[in-house]
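TA notes. Do not distribute before section.
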Amino acid sequence: MHRTNWTQTALVALLLLLLAVTVSQAAGLELQNLQENCPLRMQDATAIPAQVTVADFVLEVGIDDSPTIGDWVKTRLQVDYGFGHGLQASVGRRTVSSDTDETGNGDIYLAALQEVYKGPRDSAAVNLEVDLPTGQDYARWDRSVPGYPNPVPPIALKIDPRDQSVDFRLGAVYTRVLDDKPLTRLHAQASYSFLDSAQGTRSRGRWFLSAGADRQVTSDTLAMVNFLFEEKPWRWGDDSAILQLGLRHQVNSRLLCGVGYSMAFGWEEADYAATVSAEYGF
């Protein structure tokens, strides 16, 4: 499908979700209701309540000493809506600012989470994400000449890491309460991405696994730790292993803020990264 058609599809989906927002009811946010990337790549197995809307904003800055990767800044703006019966739907947009690879800059995605089990101490959910190729579909390698910066000046090359196919991510989330006072929980997540847009030597499928925990340190602050594994994006190279630490703070009944730090034991994107997030309920 041509890019223009994908853009139209994404805009229709966004308008439908905004229509749902107009009938949403006011409700306070829950400190323990974790949304992925706010601020860590960790979420719990609970959907937001029915007829509640949450707007999420995430800013992530990555630092890498490699001349072929360099530093980057990523943002994510997402709107979540609770339909009731344990169903949550989301629509969002990503941006990427980098000297090298800005593939996906401007992409719009659709996501859903459905609770499948809710017990007194544990819960489980399944989730689905659909990535629409509405953004940039090429990478710019400005520092790919051997010996840069001396003696050869840099040249700019464009490569096509993907086509206009749609990518899917299917996963499952599990949460278990370990202790009530203070509230301490364990979270596990597994997903597989079907990357039909991948070109050349890029992988057409990637596993993602994470295990983490959160602990309520005060009435309005949550401490978080997460360890994640993700398969490499290319058919060569190493897989990613990342340790994440974060804090999540409830400013008031409608506003949640978070800060996170990611340290790489092996990561194709950065040596380390810092994340700030904000969630607003209305």
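Switch to the second chain here.
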Amino acid sequence: MDDPQTREFHYATVYVACTTVAAVIVPISALSRYMLNARTFDLVIDLLISALLIAAAVSFTRPYLRLTPGHIAINLGPARPTRTVPWSSVQRVDQPIPNVVQLTLSDGKKVKLHLILVRKDERNALMAVLQPRLSSSQGMAG
């Protein structure tokens, strides 16, 4: 984060904690079951699930949103690439319901930002950044 105008907003702690705990417990459980004569197939499945949980835990350590003067980057979660949307392609910013900000792009596609995924202590700062971009017909919900 070299640019002073770049802001990062992180996942809520509950997502990080839950996936981290699961990523620790599942492999231990898998190895325990294998040592108690479970089938090799069960071990393989459990270890694959463990790998997915570890990937999720690592993914949730990255910021959910990264706002720069030129674009917004959205971490879509484990095993999915970060989506980068140039601000120049954002035609409209609305808040149709509390805890959701919707970006309407120039090609008509809509991108939803789920505020509930952002850490509580960062939500107001995120809304302060997005407030000037909210469409004039929209009030602040929630």
